[in-house]
Structures are given as C-alpha cells and as structure tokens.
C-alpha cells in the first residue's frame, strides 16, 4: 500500500514540470506585461519604463526568466506579487480557506443529494421519477455557471429576498478577526449570536451554483453504476438471505455501486476548487479564484504562476487521496498490489 | 405432509413482445430429508420455478399456482416481510456462479454473520463462534484466517463452500442448490456434491438439486423431475427413471449418455429446443420426437399415471416402446 502510494506520488512529478512550463508560457502569450498595465495610458519616460522592467527581471531573455522561475520554485519560492508586494504563498493561503469552504460545501451538497437521488432512480428505473430526474440532470450538467448564478441572484436574492446577494457574512452586523479563515468555524469561535447562521445563509446560493454540475454528474453516475450492480449475482444472494430491501440496496448494492462514483467525487473536488473562479466572481466571494481573475487583469505574473501551481498541486493531491480512498472501499485494489 | 408442496405452478414474464411462459403447470413435492433432482436443459424453467418459491423473481414475472406451501404455510398469501423471515432461514438457496454470488466488498465472516444476525439475532461473539463452526463444517481449512478474507482471495470451490456455509447457517429445512457444481472443475464438482449429500445426511434437511447433468442426478437424487421447455415431462424415483424412462425426451437424454451408447456414433436428440415465441399447440417435444403423431402436434398430452413416471405424453414408453393404450387406462 505504501509502495503503491509512493509510486503514484512519483508519477505526479512530470505533471508538475509540464505545469510550470504551461503557466509560464500561457501568461506571456497574453499581450501586455505588468509594467504596461500599471503605467496605463498616462505615458511614462522610456528610462523609467526600462528601469521598472529591469527591477522585475522582464528585460532578461525569456528562457532565462523561465529558468530563474523554475530555480526559485524548486527552492520553494513562489515569488512576490508585482501588485501588492506580498509573498504569493502568503496571499494564496489567506484566501484559500474561503475557496475550500465553498467547494467542499458544494461537493457535500452534491453528494448528499446526488447519491440518494441516483440510487432511487436506478431502483425505480423507467418510472416518471427516474425520467424526470435524468432530464433535470441533463439540464444541470449543461448549465452555464455564470448565467445560472445571475439567474438565481435575480430570482432568489433580489425578487424573493430569501438569501443575501454576495459575500461571506453580513459585515455590518458581524465583525471578527479571522482565526482559521473558514467562516463557518470563525463565526462559531467569535461567539457572536447568529453569526454561524448568517454565514450559512451566505453559503446557500454559491453552493447551489457551484454544486449543480457535480450534482448532475454524481446523480447520473450513481444511477448507471447502481443499475449495473443491481443485476449482479451477489445482490440476488443478499435477497436470498432474507435481508430487507433497504439493506440489500443501501448496503450490498450501493457499496459496490459507489466505487466508480468515488472517483467522480474526487475529481469534482479538484475541479470545483479550480472552477470556483466563476462562482467566486459572481458572488464576490473572496477566494483564490477571484484573486486569480484579478491577477490576470493586472498581468501579475508571479501571482498567476504561483497561484495556478498551488491549485494544481492541491488538485493533484486530492486525486492522489482519492486513489487511496478507492483502495479502502474496494478491497480488490487494496490486496491487489 | 410434504415439506414443500407446489401444484400447477406457472410463471410468465411480461416482455416487450407479449407474455412469455417460462414455467408451465409444474408440480414439485419435496418431503423432509429427501433429495429431489430437477433436470433439464438451459431455459427449461428449472431455476425459475425455484426462484418463484424463494420470491426472487423480478417484478416482470407473474406467478400462479393452485397450491404453494412450505412447512404448512401458504407462500402465495404470505406478505413480503413474513416471507423474508422464512427465506434465508428455513429455505436457503445456493447458485451456479459462486465467485460472483459473494459480495466483493465484504469479508467472508461478515457475509455469513449477517445471516445469523438477521434471522437468529446472535451477538458478535456468538456469530463468530458459529461462523467458525460452519466454516469447519463445510471443509474450509484454517477457518480463523478465512473469516477476514475477501471473496476475490478465494477459489471457486472455496467460494461455493462459503455459499453453502451461509445457506446452512440457520439450519434450514430445505436447501435449493441451483447447479451448484456447474461452474467448477470436475474434481471440485464431486467434492461439492459430496459435501451437500453429507450435510443433508447430518442435518436432516431436504435438498432440491437443479442440474443438467444426468450423472449428478444418478449419484445424489432420490426423486427426479425432468423439465422440457417449461413443462414437467416426467417425474419418478431415480432408480426407476434410469431403468425405464417413460417420456421420449428422457429416453433420448439417457440414450445420449456416453456410458450407455452402443454404436460408434453417440445418439442425439434431433432438432432444437422451441424458442421463446414458438407457439406449439400440442406437445412441446413433438417436433423432435421420433414417435410423434398428428395428435401430439395438435393437442397437449395428458399426464400418465405414476407407474408410467407421470409422463406428459400421448404414448409413454415402456422399455423404449410407445404404449398407445396407456393413456386410456
């Protein structure tokens, strides 16, 4: 098991090198550089421009910039933001808890609804429930996040006044210093009455928006996997033992059906952290996604490179973790190596 | 009174192209401690009849019977909850594919213990003790270690032993074995059959053995039911059946056994089994029967008396010769 884990971990190293190259190259393909963006249209003397460029190392040949960047990364140095002069690592981890909170809540929402909904659809295959659910899930799956978010804000927040429009908590009513960066935890720690409820209230819409695509995916995946498993001989054995339908389906069938679903859930955790970019922008959620979008606008090379690398590292780690969990729920893999 | 008494059982499945009758007017009577063999080729309705007893048929199946009692209880009127209390405890069933019949996600110990917990409400130490005892009973070596084994770590023969241990866990009165040895190696087949016979002797349970292997029937069963295309074509004590088969189908089957062949070429039954949607107004075996007359093709034959093996035939055989007056008598 340990060896298996190490092997899988070693396989991620080439991925990181490819990522370094891609992030470095991609941002440089966009016209403009940090200096031009900062200078704007005011105009500046060519001497000052050259000096700025020199300070940021942008007057070096591109290949040298790349090697300096890789060298620094290998020493754990993610660089300093051109705009804020803060260490990229510090900025990232200040904002990251907000992203984690949002994406984990979204996945939790998707799993809690998607797995039972998909399982019931499989058991009642062909029924109106099944057909309705599968039609809705196609819509959910293909929903453009941006449009869906705006739609919900207009309807739920603006028209019906059921939820707040944006942010993580009502800053007029509540204020406390972040301790963990997770609003749900901090609001409890603050001891202020109603803070947790307010934080939860702010989570509702972003979670629905971010959770819609994973929800549709998980529900469909659970359904098809469950359909396959329900025809298996061991399900018949479980029924022949005189077990209740709930136990036959909920334990004997579902346990097997979830094996492929766990992979999907794991991948969704990763992609929702990266995909939170849109949701965070719509709801002014102060997370990494919003920060990255801003960094693109400012051509903040170090922030972008560092941010993308860090998110990638986290997504890769999550996928690795999924492989381990996979082994835990599927004994055939655990003992296979 | 018989332990399992089924009269005129029919099972049909709703399919896209209309109803398909998989089992047609079958009678099965099993006494306590008896071994009944049900023999027939694939699709002859052997398994379906027994799955109907267990209540394991899919919802597309319609089951009708004049009588269907087990141990004095009417299975037709029993609610699903009550039936679940009987199956797995008093009637148990093992299947053809032992490797896929065990749940790959749970240990052997858990799967056997689950039956004990569900029906006998045993606590954990009692379940463990009883499971070890069962594993030993079905001839598993090193049972302590096997408790925590997963199905993929077991061979086919061992999986079937585990299935048997699970089935006999609550000391059932009836064990239905659906082709228990078909998927196994020949040497293992014999071991599994010996085990079933020994268990039946030791525990006093009745055994219904579904097979397509005449050899298995000859070695283990006391009573035999021969099925063909959903119908029961002959039923008699094993010895009688092998000595003097009364239905032309049984006669053909036995003549095709290599041990019995006399010529250079093995005799075979000409033709094929009628398909799902072949509507035969008369005897289903008529198209393949060497003795078939116009009557056979047009009308369903009556059942012959017990001395002629209850053969479903217009002209049951005696010593291989059709008896034209037999039905009238």
Please give a structural write-up.
- The complex is a heterodimer of chains A (337) and B (329).
- Chain A has 337 residues and is mainly α.
- Chain A has a domain at 100-291: Orthogonal Bundle (MetI-like fold).
- In chain A, 75% of the residues lie in helices and 0% in strands.
- Chain A is built from 15 helices and no strands.
- Chain A has helices at 2-10, 13-29, 34-39, 46-55, 62-74, 88-123, 128-141, 145-159, 183-190, 195-230, 233-240, 245-282, 288-297, 301-329, 331-334.
- The longest helix of chain A is centred in the last third of the chain and has 38 residues, at 245-282.
- The two termini of chain B are 28 Å apart.
- The longest helix of chain B is centred in the middle third of the chain and has 18 residues, at 186-203.
- A 6-stranded mixed sheet of chain B has the order 7-8-9-3-10-11, sandwiched between helices.
- Chain B has helices at residues 46-54, 80-86, 98-101, 108-120, 124-137, 143-146, 156-167, 186-203, 214-220, 238-243, 248-255, 294-298, and strands spanning 4-15, 18-30, 35-39, 61-64, 67-70, 73-74, 91-94, 174-178, 206-211, 223-228, 231-237, 317-318, 321-322.
- In chain B, a hairpin with a 2-residue loop joins strand 10 (223-228) and strand 11.
- In chain B, helix 4 (108-120) crosses helix 5, helix 4 packs parallel to helix 7 and helix 5 crosses helix 7.
- Chain B has 2 domains: 4-226, P-loop containing nucleotide triphosphate hydrolases (Rossmann fold, 3-Layer(aba) Sandwich), CATH 3.40.50; 251-322, no CATH class.
- Chain B is globular.
- Chain B has 329 residues and is an alpha/beta fold.
- The interface between A and B is medium-sized, with 20 and 28 residues.
| Relative helix content of chain A | over 70%
CATH architecture of the largest domain in chain B: 3-Layer(aba) Sandwich
Largest sheet of chain A: none
**How is the largest sheet of chain B built, in terms of strand order?**
7-8-9-3-10-11
Q: What is the H level of CATH, i.e. the homologous superfamily of the domain at 100-291 in chain A?
A: MetI-like
User: How many β-strand runs of chain B?
Assistant: 13
* Helix/strand order of chain B: EEEHEEEHEHHHHHEHEHEEHHHEE
Tell me roughly what share of residues is in helical segments of chain B.
25-40%
| Average predicted local confidence, pLDDT of chain A | 86
Give the strand tally of chain A: 0
* Terminus-to-terminus distance of chain A: 7 Å
């Amino acid at each position: 098991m340990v060896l298996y884990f190490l092997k899988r971990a070693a396989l991620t190293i080439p991925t990181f090198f490819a990522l370094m190259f891609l992030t470095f190259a991609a941002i440089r393909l966009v016209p403009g550089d940090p200096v031009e963006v900062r200078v704007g249209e005011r105009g500046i003397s060519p001497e000052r421009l050259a000096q700025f460029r020199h300070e940021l190392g942008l007057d070096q040949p591109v290949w040298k910039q790349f090697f300096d960047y890789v060298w620094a990364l290998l020493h754990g140095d993610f660089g300093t933001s051109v705009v804020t002069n803060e260490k990229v690592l510090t900025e990232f981890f200040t904002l990251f808890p907000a992203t984690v909170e949002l994406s984990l809540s979204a996945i939790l929402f998707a799993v809690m609804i998607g797995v039972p909904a998909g399982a019931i659809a499989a058991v009642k295959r062909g029924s109106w429930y099944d057909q309705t659910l599968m039609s809705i899930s196609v819509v959910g799956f293909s929903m453009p996040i941006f449009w869906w978010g705006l739609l919900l804000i207009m309807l739920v927040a603006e028209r019906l006044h059921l939820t707040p429009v944006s942010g993580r908590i009502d800053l007029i009513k509540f204020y406390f210093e972040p301790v963990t960066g997770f609003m749900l935890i901090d609001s409890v720690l603050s001891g202020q009455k109603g803070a947790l409820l307010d934080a939860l209230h702010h989570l509702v819409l972003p979670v629905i928006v971010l959770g819609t695509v994973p929800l549709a995916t998980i529900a469909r995946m659970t359904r098809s996997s469950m359909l396959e498993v329900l025809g298996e001989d061991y399900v018949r054995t479980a029924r022949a033992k005189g077990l209740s339908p709930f136990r036959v389906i909920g334990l004997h069938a579902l346990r097997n059906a979830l094996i492929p679903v766990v992979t999907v859930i794991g991948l969704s955790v990763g992609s929702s952290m990266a995909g939170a970019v849109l949701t965070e922008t719509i709801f002014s959620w102060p997370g990494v996604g919003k920060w990255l979008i801003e960094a693109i606008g400012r051509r903040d090379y170090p922030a972008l490179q560092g941010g993308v690398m860090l998110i990638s590292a986290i997504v890769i780690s999550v996928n690795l973790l999924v492989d381990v969990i996979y082994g835990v729920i599927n004994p055939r893999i655990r003992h296979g190596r | 009174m018989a332990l399992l008494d089924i009269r005129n059982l029919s099972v049909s499945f709703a399919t896209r192209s209309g109803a398909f009758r998989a089992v047609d007017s079958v009678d099965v009577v099993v006494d306590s401690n008896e071994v009944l063999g049900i023999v027939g080729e694939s699709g002859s309705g052997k398994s379906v009849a027994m799955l109907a007893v267990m209540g394991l048929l899919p919802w597309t199946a319609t089951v009708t019977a004049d009588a269907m009692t087990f141990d004095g209880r009417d299975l037709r009127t029993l609610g699903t909850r009550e039936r679940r209390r009987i199956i797995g405890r008093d009637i148990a069933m093992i299947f053809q594919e032992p490797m896929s019949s065990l749940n790959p996600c749970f240990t052997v110990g858990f799967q056997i213990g689950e039956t004990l917990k569900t029906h006998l409400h045993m606590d954990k130490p009692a379940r463990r003790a009883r499971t070890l005892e069962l594993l030993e009973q079905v001839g598993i070596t090193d049972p302590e270690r096997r408790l925590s084994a997963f199905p993929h770590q077991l061979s086919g023969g061992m999986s079937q032993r585990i299935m048997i241990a699970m089935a006999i866990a609550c000391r059932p009165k009836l064990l239905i074995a659906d082709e228990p040895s078909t998927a196994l190696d020949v040497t293992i087949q014999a071991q599994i059959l010996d085990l079933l016979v020994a268990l039946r002797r030791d525990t006093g349970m009745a055994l219904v053995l579904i097979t397509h292997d005449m050899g298995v029937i000859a070695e283990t069963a006391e009573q035999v039911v021969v099925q063909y295309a959903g119908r029961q074509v002959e039923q008699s004590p094993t010895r009688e059946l092998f000595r003097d088969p009364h239905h032309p189908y049984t006669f053909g089957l036995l003549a095709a056994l290599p041990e019995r062949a006399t010529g250079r070429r093995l005799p075979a039954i000409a033709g094929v089994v009628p398909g799902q949607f072949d509507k035969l107004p008369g005897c289903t075996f008529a198209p393949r029967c060497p003795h078939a007359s116009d009557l056979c093709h047009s009308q369903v034959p009556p059942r012959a008396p017990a001395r002629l093996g209850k053969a479903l035939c217009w002209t049951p055989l005696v010593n291989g010769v059709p008896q034209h007056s037999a039905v009238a008598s």
